[in-house]
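User: Just a sanity check before I run the rest of the batch. Below are the structure tokens for the first item. I only need the designed sequence back.
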């Protein structure tokens, strides 16, 4: 996944003065970024046409993802360079492990998913790849690398969440609340803060390190898209069927 020199941040900002570093990494992540943020799964949450079977499959898998996301945030709290950043990240971690955890438990109950199932679920190949990328980037990589992965996950959800929040809420509380969790102003503020943090750090990095961040964001976008696809269809996307290509 190596880009030509024309797709560097330097060229991007020369052709669009004032362009943000985070706009560049999202542009570099096409077509996966648009595919993930527009996935049919996200539209079915908003219009209430989501089959229960697909949503239960998604929530079981996502609960394992959320557990690794909590660990990712722990690593980032440790690596954050100042108290302001530690406070932002730990506030989000607190929300994830309280309000959002409670959402999952109530939703599993409503969908008839027993605790034994969601507490012992093994991660599928897409989620395993996600966990690998998130935990390795935040645990072994730099603050900027971990933050880039976090940005992709949360900005993706803010993008579809805000779009679906324009529609009347679906009747099922687990669909309506999933939209609200990702469209409220507090969540938008958090994503804006991650963007501002990376917009400050990114331009000062070497072209090689900028490239690493763009590649991480691209891989994360590909995985977000594959995650929705696997939940939606109940089948693994082609790239995950063949262990050689994972
Ligand atoms: C796979 C995935 N990506 C992102 C999010 C938003 N926290 C999530 N719940 N699940």
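Assistant: Here's the designed sequence for the first item:
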């Amino acid at each position: 996944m190596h880009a030509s020199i024309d797709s560097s941040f330097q060229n991007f900002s020369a052709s669009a003065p004032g362009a943000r570093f985070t706009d560049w990494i999202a542009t570099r992540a096409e077509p996966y970024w648009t595919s993930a943020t527009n996935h049919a799964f996200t539209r079915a949450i908003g219009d209430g046409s989501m089959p229960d079977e697909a949503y239960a499959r998604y929530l079981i898998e996502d609960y394992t993802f959320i557990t690794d996301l909590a660990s990712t945030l722990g690593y980032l709290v440790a690596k954050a360079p100042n108290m302001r950043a530690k406070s932002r990240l730990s506030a989000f971690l607190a929300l994830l492990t309280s309000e959002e955890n409670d959402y999952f438990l109530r939703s599993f109950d409503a969908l008839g998913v027993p605790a034994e199932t969601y507490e012992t679920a093994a991660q599928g190949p897409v989620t395993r790849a996600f966990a690998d990328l998130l935990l390795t980037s935040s645990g072994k990589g730099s603050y900027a690398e971990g933050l880039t992965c976090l940005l992709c996950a949360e900005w993706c959800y803010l993008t579809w969440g805000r779009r679906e929040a324009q529609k009347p809420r679906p009747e099922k509380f687990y669909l309506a609340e999933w939209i609200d969790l990702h469209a409220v102003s507090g969540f938008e503020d958090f994503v804006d803060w991650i963007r501002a943090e990376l917009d400050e750090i990114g331009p000062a990095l070497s072209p090689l390190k900028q490239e690493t961040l763009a590649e991480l964001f691209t891989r994360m976008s590909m995985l977000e898209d594959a995650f929705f696809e696997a939940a939606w269809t109940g089948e693994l996307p082609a790239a995950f069927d063949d262990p050689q290509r994972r």
